[in-house]
Amino acid sequence: MAENQNPPSFTLTNNQTGEAVELPVLDGTTGPSVIDIRALYSGTKHFSFDPGYGMTGACKSSLTYIDGELGQLMHGGYSIDELAEKSDFLEVAFLLLNGELPTKTEKEEFDHAITHHTMVHEQLNTFFRGFRRDAHPMAILCGVTGALSAFYHDSTDINDPFQRMVASRRLIAKMPTLAAMAFKYSLGQPFNYPRNNLSYSENFLQMCFGVPTEDYVVDPVLADAMDKILILHADHEQNASTSTVRLAGSSGANPFACIAAGIAALWGPAHGGANEAVLNMLSEIGDRSRIPEYIKKPRDKDDPFRLFGFGHRVYKNFDPRAKVMRQSCHDVLNKLGIKDEPLLDLAMELEDIALKDEYFIEKKLYPNVDFYSGIILKAMGFPTSMFTVLFAVARTVGWVSQWKEMIEDPQQRIGRPRQLYTGPAERKYVDISAR
Ligand code: SDX
Fold first, then answer.
1. Which of 71, 90, 323, 414 is deepest in the core (most CB within 10 A)?
2. What does the pLDDT average to over 160-173?
3. Average per-residue pLDDT in the chain?
């Protein structure tokens, strides 16, 4: 193909010296092109400045694409709506790991492999005993996941493709088991072993809600809802926790340590911790008569209050996952025969009022994935402290896939942002006697 004689670029000119540097433009498959600023320092002796990286492309990725203006999300080119309706979580995991939907044979092999990696080393049971019973399940999950590298030394060599594959499958397979163990430990109930005759989501539910005193019968409604929730939370471009996993992985840290770092980042209430915060906020609001008071609070710049479950760094339209989640919420509550869930009524009223409020319209604040998920999870019997744990179970697939993509990128280097220094200029040390 003839080389483009006039490739797109931007010329940056210093308006005092007239010096200019040409910065090439890189095009992707869809969405905004990027300005390649790797020559910026050599050409200008200046760094770029973008606190929070809101305008910075940190990598090339083919896994997920979000259109924040249109409110679209796709994995490997497939829209989240289609995947949530027609796929299942392990098929989405295969798609994220391999870039294509599996054939029937590939799907059977992958499901079998994940199912047969769900058990954890028996010694991990003892590891849990070191936590207080009232420890937050996210604290336990973060600690235990980091400890996996002490149990699975044979899959920590990141330069060995086979070990990368084994570690990826171990993490995807064992995260539900660890999450269920954290839940059981907080209840003071015995751990349940995974069952190979159940699907991924069915297995997770039985490990969470099964008890030794009776057979656990999986409710297909709950299993389907759980699988859908996992799909909706699987991956989401370079969000805070995924970027944490990539940065940790860029130093060559083992995959278990990288995923533990992702869990830690996800826990924040501005990120994955929002689903727990939404339920706490709805409980605090308590009654629809108090909604106007809470809708007004964000206007007050001195009030740090934010409406949890609303707003997003990328979506300036409806989060497509929230739409699927809202419908699933109604389906699950109806099928469970829960007629009047006051928190759902309150959430629907809050959404309705917020979407008509001029501040929320001006700031383009819409419900995000966390707004409805907590209501479904509460209806399924999970305590609020487990909501972010479930988010971590799902996002492990995205974290592992993004980590794999980074490690396999031949241009991959250690991540090392720069800064604008605003501290004191160089000065001499003063002995304490003279201070
Ligand atoms: C997730 O990145 C991802 O992809 C994350 C995620 C994923 O799948 O990985 O989608 C998962 O983290 C969803 C978000 C869950 N968090 C919450 O629901 C917490 C509440 N939301 C906010 O904290 C906030 O919206 C953030 C953190 C999500 C985004 O913060 P930004 O980037 O600062 O939001 P912004 O720049 O778009 O804000 C614009 C304005 C600001 O006011 P000004 O400074 O312009 O005066 O809107 C205000 C914000 O203060 N604002 C809100 C608000 N969110 C933003 N005001 C009230 N309530 C809110 N929820």
1. 90
2. 96
3. 94
Average pLDDT over residues 155-166: 93
- Structure token pair of residue 230: 């996992």
Q: Is 111 a catalytic residue?
A: no
Both structure tokens of 373: 């998920």
Q: Determine the residue type at 245.
A: V
188, 133 in Cβ contact below 8 A? yes
Give, for ligand 1, the residue of 368, 371, 391 to mutate: max count of ligand atoms closer than 8 Å to Cβ.
Answer: 368
Nearest C-alpha neighbor of 191 from the set 172, 175, 178: 178
End-to-end C-alpha distance for the chain, whole angstroms = 70
Cβ–ligand 1 distance for 370 under 6 Å, the answer yes
Residue 54 has phi, psi (to 5 degrees) of -65, -25
CA pair distance 347, 326, nearest whole angstrom: 10
Ligand 1 centroid distance, CA of 313 (Å): 6
pLDDT of res. 260: 98
**298 ligand 1 Cβ < 6 A:** yes
Number of neighbouring beta carbons within 10 Å of residue 232? 26
121 lines ligand 1 (CB under 6 A): no
With contact defined as beta carbons under 8 Å apart, do 111 and 94 qualify?
no
Find where tokens 């800064």 sit.
419
Cα 368 from Cα 275, distance rounded (Å): 10
| Beta bridge mates, 367 | 310
Ligand 1 touching residue 351 (CB < 6 A)? no
Per-residue CA distances from 44 to 34, 51, 421 (Å): 19, 20, 17
pLDDT at position 2 is 66
Q: Which residues pair with 9 in a beta bridge?
A: 24
Among protein residues, the one whose CA lies closest to atom 45 of ligand 1: 363
- Distance (Å, rounded) from C-alpha 275 to C-alpha 259? 20
Residue 60 has a CB neighbour count (10 Å cut-off) of 12
Amino acid at 388: T
pLDDT digits (tens, 9 = 90+) for 128-153: 999 999 999 999 999 999 999 999 98
Task: Report the distance separating Cα 50 and Cα 89, nearest Å.
Answer: 35
312 classed as catalytic: yes
